[in-house]
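Maleylpyruvate isomerase family mycothiol-dependent enzyme: structure tokens wanted.
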Amino acid sequence: MTDRTMDRAELTALLAEQWEAIAALVADLDENRWRTPTRLPGWTVFDVVAHVVGTESWLLGEKPPPHDPMREKTDVRSLPHVRNETAVLNEIWVDRLRPLPGARLLDLFREVTDRRLAALREMDDAAWTTPTVSPIGQVPYGRFMRVRLFDCWMHELDIADALGVRVDEGGRRAELAFAEFAGSMPRVVAKLGKAPVGSRIGFALTGALPQTLCIAVDERASYVDAFDGPADVEITMDSGLFVRLGGGRRQAADHLDEIAITGDEELGGRLVRHLAFTL
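Answer:
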């Protein structure tokens, strides 16, 4: 049976919607606003958009622009937030695109994402299911595109937060992006939060993506439909805050008045302090 969360036509349409949402956020920015810092280390709004341009260009088989010999060359491997080869490639793309004015970057963003959409629409089912190297290992190409939706959705939030504007954080696009994000949570609570074997953890999320996540930690941590008794701890917060904590964009210590913990408060406090698994 086809996994509807990786349906080719739907994901392609949602990626088109996601890329247009990013373009709309930056369409009227002056050059100063383009260079607004975000919560991503070393990156401005311009850099976030450049990162998306770089990744989608790479997926088209393209290489970063050559280094301008008139600019000092950046040793991207020396940057403290660069921890792997994927990050190295990301930083090279961003660095090479930085000399462009924001308006030109937006033109490039639209041109590259249009070509990516054309490529996705031309794919057949065999290509969509072919195992492909991705940031989460070798997965079917369709799963990689759900990762791309999540990444671009998170970057829409990064841009909106930096610019101080609100965007709609719900809807089908957000649901699929959140599904990709939430898939890592059982491992996060067990490995990073060190939830003990036998614990039952509930996240009651409010806001744009209301839902309850039930995680049982046994030999391995996994989602369950419901617990057979009371949860050891239930943590209530807005879904947007949850995503930003998991993405390393916020620190729980700065939002304790927005987080309610019932049950084992020590365990709950440790979990919310150790939700970050991606940045």
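The longest strand covers residues 200-206. The domain at 183-273 is CATH 3.30.1050.10 (Nonspecific Lipid-transfer Protein; Chain A).

Cheers.
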